[in-house]
């Protein structure tokens, strides 16, 4: 279901879309033991996803479960992940999206019915983010001949629509498996002369100059200190605008994420980092860019802040 264009706004009049949380009366928790039962029941579908997915629970349950957050030790789990692959965040992300993560997210980004209700909800949320990014990109005119860098392109969910609009697309992803899937999909949907140029690369190694640089749902895999450098680098590649999406960090969402880490699921997942809008805006302003459009995309299990920035 498309989001109305009114989601997009100028920086002087920011649209706010409140998440649609499940009915709080379902989570009328009166004891710690009942809290555990409620969360366990709520994450039945999430077991097939991973800790990057944040289950959005009712406000009443969050208040009751906040005290349990201290039981989690996500940093220890993150260190173990890094040790397994012999590196830091980048190596963990590369390993995950070339193995378990590729199969999982290929289904989520695809059209198969082999997804549970949480995965299907995330598919809808990501599709809304792509749709609204396209609204930002096309509202000022045709994309024919416009150079666009799609950084962290995944399976091509944005690259292919951009190419269909006539943009000259350079698409990259840290995962070779994701790039192979994106290339296959692009060849099925586009004539040879309109195909994006796909490459396996991480954000920090990208080079060149583009009219527009887009990076959707990637910053969640990196802590703020690394995200700052990535944002600065992406801005250095762009001539006219940068479009980013990220999981917003608020007290409420942070508690939900920590609760989700109580139930990491049966398979290894990437680390998940939330970013405050103020931190992202500060990183952009530091390198001479300002945010001009903002939007918030939410479904029951997916939330993402979408921004467009231009040179100051």
From TrEMBL:
Residues in Magnesium-protoporphyrin IX methyltransferase C-terminal domain copies: 215-310
Gene3D superfamilies to which the protein is assigned, alphabetical: Vaccinia Virus protein VP39
GO molecular function: magnesium protoporphyrin IX methyltransferase activity
GO terms under biological process: chlorophyll biosynthetic process; methylation
Record's keyword terms, sorted: Methyltransferase, S-adenosyl-L-methionine, Transferase
Pfam families on file: Mg-por_mtran_C (PF07109)
InterPro entries: Mg_prot_MeTrfase (IPR010251), Mg_prot_MeTrfase_C (IPR010940), SAM-dependent_MTases_sf (IPR029063)
SUPFAM superfamilies: S-adenosyl-L-methionine-dependent methyltransferases (SSF53335)
Alphabetical list of PANTHER family matching this protein: METHYLTRANSFERASE, UBIQUINONE BIOSYNTHESIS O-METHYLTRANSFERASE, MITOCHONDRIAL
Protein name: Magnesium protoporphyrin IX methyltransferase, chloroplastic
Protein source organism: Noccaea caerulescens
